Amino acid sequence: MLVKEQRFEQVKMLLLDMKGLTGTIGAMPMHDLLVEIQQKIIYNKEEVIDTCVASFSKTFSTLKTSIETYLAA
Length: 73
Description:
Layout: H1 8-25, H2 28-42, H3 49-72
């Protein structure tokens, strides 16, 4: 995992891509969380990133379920 390996430059690039995608599809809870994580990384708040990773996992799971439900309809 990029965060555990402290590969924050790669995390920043991934966040940028994901923010664009989530904004485009209207996945605002995920988009807002990605903005928050990005800000914490930019301002060197790595000590709170673990909390964000837990939130990301939960929000991603919800988003994935919503996408699967939409595609199945």
